[in-house]
């Protein structure tokens, strides 16, 4: 039996049964990283020694009867490099944090570790999560495991690539405008963007605080449901975190937050022996206007075929229109960049992170540290955000965008009066070539058309595979639900996976030795940081050295 | 909306970013394109719509102000680009 072929839940249950030692599981993945990651570049930092030490500790606990209620004890995990890990460099894939070693853990990291998870490394992403291809990383682009000349999506591209290539059984990602769902779609995985507030953002390096949510990237719905059930919950360190009420679609009031109450998504999984029962009575809306010009024909066909399959098994599928989608991308970019310009003002070269050596006064320190530390796309978004918030332009841009956001929320509210969920594509295309789109910001932004509205409305969405295109690249679809309706989404999505096997397909690199057929990432045109952003320092994929408290894996 | 030389200097200043003349030119073109694109929002009548800055409005979240952390001065200063004793070291701020 190959450990890496197990899902996270299967691995967790074998570990609990004593059939697999935690150390064996961790070693299997560390070895896979050593062998494969030169072909993918998913990891920024691998913590081999720490992970092995931790594996033995967790094993000891398990042997002593610990982690009884945890489904994921002893199971390795990769964490997107924008979530703080105490003592392990957390860079947000930016030069400005290349040497940053957090003094504390993000709440999600604490929660995972309390459940016996073993973190094996930190994975690549677009710089500060700003991008949809993982090409804006200071540490070079990540390759798609299905074809490493193509992007894995982004910004959680490292999370998705690590899982799809068999270099982690699951990973955490973050989703501000599609950053979990689109990479999941590009790599044949399942990812959930939870309802805003469901998962604590404490220790997540902020991009756009009113949109950011942490969520799982996994092989199937069951794994994703188990991970989300674990990390969801109210956290006193994040005042926007809530325990939601699926009935009233609102957060419980503060008194009631003290009550017991958590997502229990495992109880929502469909019974594979009786899928039709799970889908019976379910109403799914399909926005006809989403299926128009700009959407790849093969994606169009695969998503509509999925709709037919759900209908054949008892769901009621109806078409409607959601014309407001055309305004989601412009509203998103104004709001996200405005929040980013404010959030990223903290990086000033004073207390942590990159400080220029070229300055001779305090003001120059700010300007030069930031100009040297941020990449082109991050600088572009900070500038756009500063502009739309500036006096004289605030009303015309930022205020207008907030009002459009309210219209978008209203459109979703109205849709959910008629439908339990909405079925839509995740991305207008499948994964595209590395270097293929990054020079045109508007084309890059437009590719987020199906995902950003969900973050603006704050509602949950699950992305799951529904086919492959003629080049063999995965196609994804998403089921979008009303606030706190993750249970319904999990039920429908798991029913779909009981009827299909797209989520069981693995790219060639997944198998032992499968990496032999792939080029090194250094040989792929456009994959190194220097070629993406000539203005930035030349330390590309191979250049950055590990700071104290971290170590890099042999693969990088 | 056309981003002029003066405006790009102003925005760069607000953003605390330095740019070469070449970068400025590119930023002007990029921002002009992006702004023309986002002006699509003006097609929508938003009169009377609330400004939705957050998914859940009007939530005040109070808690007791209890100290839970201890003195982590050295841990926090470990990331300082420059330090002296228990302080961050920077250029002189007040003349």
Top-tier CATH class of chain A:
Alpha Beta
Low-pLDDT windows of residues of chain A: 252-261, 530-556
Task: Give the CA-CA distance, first to last residue of chain A.
Answer: 28 Å
Structural class by helix and strand composition of chain B:
mainly alpha
Tell me what the CATH architecture of the domain at 5-43 in chain B is: Orthogonal Bundle
- The chain-level structural class of chain A is alpha/beta
Report the average pLDDT across residues of chain B: 90
Strand content of chain A: 5-15%
**Main sheet of chain B, how many strands, which sense, barrel?**
2 strands, antiparallel
- Classify the fold: give the CATH topology of the domain at 5-43 in chain B: Histone, subunit A
Which SSEs are present, and which pair or pack?
The complex is a heterodimer of chains A (556) and B (95).
Chain A lengths: L7 H9 L5 H15 L6 E4 L1 H16 L12 E5 L26 H8 L3 E6 L33 H8 L6 E5 L5 H7 L2 E4 L19 E6 L2 H11 L12 E2 L4 E2 L2 H4 L17 H5 L3 E5 L9 H16 L3 E5 L7 H16 L18 H12 L2 H14 L4 H25 L2 E5 L15 H6 L5 H6 L3 E8 L5 E8 L4 H14 L29 H4 L24
Parallel strand pairs in A: 2-3, 2-4, 9-10, 9-11
Antiparallel strand pairs in A: 1-3, 4-6, 5-6, 5-12, 7-8, 11-13, 12-13
Chain B lengths: L4 H10 L6 H18 L34 H5 L5 E2 L2 E2 L7
Provide an overview of this structure.
- The complex is a heterodimer of chains A (556) and B (95).
- By secondary structure, chain A is α/β, with parallel strands linked by helices.
- Chain A is built from 18 helices and 13 strands.
- Chain A has a single domain, classed as Amidase signature (AS) domain (Amidase signature (AS) enzymes, Alpha-Beta Complex), CATH 3.90.1300.
- Chain A has helices at 8-16, 22-36, 48-63, 107-114, 157-164, 181-187, 221-231, 254-257, 275-279, 297-312, 328-343, 362-373, 376-389, 394-418, 441-446, 452-457, 486-499, 529-532, and strands at 43-46, 76-80, 118-123, 171-175, 190-193, 213-218, 244-245, 250-251, 283-287, 316-320, 421-425, 461-468, 474-481.
- Chain A has an 11-stranded mixed beta sheet with strand order 1-3-2-4-6-5-12-13-11-9-10, sandwiched between helices. Chain A has a two-stranded antiparallel ribbon with strand order 7-8.
- In chain A, strand 12 and strand 13 (474-481) form a beta hairpin.
- The longest helix of chain A has 25 residues, at 394-418.
- Chain A is globular, with a radius of gyration of 22 Å.
- Chain B has 3 helices and 2 strands, in the order αααββ.
- Chain B is flat.
- At the A-B interface, strand 8, helix 11, helix 12, helix 13 and helix 14 of A face helix 1 and helix 2 of B.
